[in-house]
Amino acid sequence: MPSPILDLAGLTLEVNHLPRGVRFYTQVLGLDLIHSDEERGTAHFRVNDAQTLTLWKPITRQANDPRLAPLRARGASHLHYAWQIQPEDLGRCKAILDEHGLPWTEIDLGTPGRPDPTVYFFDPFGHGLELRGTDLSDERRPTYPPAPVERPSHALPVMGLREVALAFGDYAAMKERLPRAYGLAYAKEQEDRDFAQFTLGPEPEPDGNGTPRRWLYAWDPQVGLADMFGGDHALVQFYAHVDEVLPRVRAEGLPHVMEDGRLAVRDPEGHVFEFLPPL
Ligand SMILES: [Fe+2]
């Protein structure tokens, strides 16, 4: 049975200073600020036609989003996630990071025959960002494929969100639960680490070689490449056939909120997954 999960829709990061977050994500990433609310401690950015990024500052006795209050949703802390860029933009990206005074690390994730140089850096809140080259002519298309973007010259030319890496304390239970409870397509795991890959699409696919697909990575708590952590208490949004995810979530007995066709679920590890109907 194909996975009901269609694509990566957005993610929410926890920050301790909202204006600093807005400054970083508008100036360094060039994202459009859609909405910000100091009182609620929230800022919401457009990434592209299908994806968004949200910042939440935790405030005592107040939910950033009252709709998700029953699930005790929080933004992710120290989350590793990746942006899609065109491979030919990598050099310019490194120069832009230098101009902003942001240290970066380059790692080649490819093979000698097909290099895949990738750049890692941190935002001011300890989230680990990655710039990953994406081959727009690759046949492995996500539901909402990335497209070339125009961003201000001082901003990184990011096309879309590529991957989110979450930490799970009980790795073995996670590997069973994610396909069962949400229908996520398990692709493979790494031989040398507790690191499972889920393809955000109907079928598991091979990762790498510039694939434009989106990914959920699930790790045991560990420090991965370039000192990046998987996120804790993340809030991640996916496009999905919601009517196919809901019976799974009910059968699993997980706390959830269904409103306006959107299904939000609290995973036993404290992550909140929100499933949005296709656009
Ligand atoms: Fe990564």
From TrEMBL:
Originating organism: Deinococcus aerius
Pfam families xrefs: Glyoxalase (PF00903)
VOC domain residues: 7-134
Record GO terms (molecular function): dioxygenase activity
Region described as Disordered: spans on this chain: 132-151
Protein's UniProt keywords contain Oxidoreductase: yes
Biased composition (Basic and acidic residues): 132-142
Keywords from the UniProt entry: Dioxygenase, Oxidoreductase
Protein's UniProt keywords contain Oxidoreductase: yes
InterPro entries: Glyas_Bleomycin-R_OHBP_Dase, Glyas_Fos-R_dOase_dom, VOC_core
Protein name per the record: Ring-cleavage extradiol dioxygenase
PROSITE patterns, per the entry: VOC
